[in-house]
Amino acid sequence: MAVKALKGFKDVVPGDVETWQFIEGMARDILHRFGCAEIKTPILEKTKLFKRSIGETTDIVEKEMYTFADRNGSSLTMRPEGTASVLRAYIENGLYQAKPIQNIYTIGPMFRHERPQKGRLRQFHQISVEVLGTDLPRADAELMAMAALIIEELGLSVSLEINSLGCKKCRPGFNTALLDYLAGIEDLCEDCLRRRETNPLRVLDCKNEQCQAYYKDAPAILDHLCGDCDSHFNAVKSDLDRLDVAYRVNHFMVRGLDYYTRTTFELITGDLGAQSAVGAGGRYDGLVKQLGGPDVPGIGFGMGMERLALLLEQREEKIAPPGVDVFIAALGAKAQDMAFEMCHKLRSSGLFVAMDYQDRALKNQMKQADKAGADFVLILGEDELVKNVGILRNMQSRDQYDVSLGGDLAEWAISLVDMIDKL
Ligand code: ATP
Ligand code: MG
Prior knowledge:
Blueprint lengths: L16 H17 L2 E3 L5 E3 H8 L4 H6 L1 E4 L5 E4 L4 H10 L9 E10 L11 E10 L4 H17 L5 E6 L6 H12 L7 H9 L10 H7 L11 H16 L5 E2 L11 E8 L8 E7 L3 H4 L7 E7 H9 L12 E5 L2 H16 L4 E3 L6 H10 L4 E5 L1 H6 L1 E6 L5 E5 L4 H14 L1
Parallel strand pairs: 1-5, 7-8, 12-13, 12-14
Antiparallel strand pairs: 2-4, 3-4, 5-6, 6-11, 7-9, 9-10, 10-11, 14-15, 15-16
Helix pairs in contact: 1-5, 1-11, 5-9, 12-15
Bound molecules: adenosine-5'-triphosphate and magnesium ion (MG).
């Protein structure tokens, strides 16, 4: 029996890959407008990098990581998200020495051992962006505006939900208030009972309806922010207003990673069922230092490419692969030889060129040209060879032009490119 791919691991095949290329191209374009530089980091890291940053008592570290011992017995993990690896690289390569504020992004696969379903895979892909070196509220607003612009320019619409998780100073006070509130409640789900002991904030993220009913009246973190965090959050909101970026404050949003401080946000869609988050992120002041680097604040987000692709595929119009510029329809052995050389010369001159090597009838070759979405067909039949003049047909307008065939082939190719440019 044929060997199949792993469960939750998916091929992106021609026909679908064009959507991915569109997403990636658009994202890169916008990221560059915001001065983001690309970084590529390994997908395999020491396990302790993720334990230390994401946190031992998070879903990712507790149950989702692909962790294994390599042949030397070292514990390695396939990266489950982008930030930890990018910060490791930022510190290890001394990137902070180059510029006080840096915008860095990476695009690539992430790995989480979750139950595969629509919009949820075990190997998925993220556009992951970090702004390092500033804790100004303006950086938060700008980063969210950047994420929103990517979505908008892809032709999609999602809503932005924001929250503040406070800082080392105010979070403990909120934790105490939350624990007091949770103290009497016994019929929480198993996960929540456990989280109440290990990581109380995380209970608010529970999807269980019975738990959610209790949490509706739970204390709100926004009521427990210290003065600094409160004015930071207010400034973020007014800068979002200034940029006309719509948002909704959701004080239940706590995010699944321990490193977040202050601003957190999610980009939510109603069109993907349970997998409603297209992107998410937040501020992580203190994380660079915690990972052994200088005390540099930062904020970032990760956007899921599978979910973006699903949203784009739900639209009626498919993103088509690029069409052929010139299809050469050659009839007879001599014309075939000539066309074979022409193809290569035209490709060297920058055109997307195709031909049929099987010397089928003209009607058949015209059909192939049509199917390939050719803009032009160059017809080389026996008559044309005798006259040394080919026929160039504009497939849309049906206009036909004479193309002289003599002389040096490289020069001929350049003049054909010129001619097509002008048509
Ligand atoms: P979810 O609540 O859907 O599990 P998350 O909070 O775990 O999301 P993050 O860690 O914040 O997600 O990752 C950012 C983005 O990456 C998500 O908004 C989503 O678009 C995408 N993502 C996360 N996990 C997966 C997955 N298993 N498959 C596909 N995309 C994913
Ligand atoms: Mg998750």
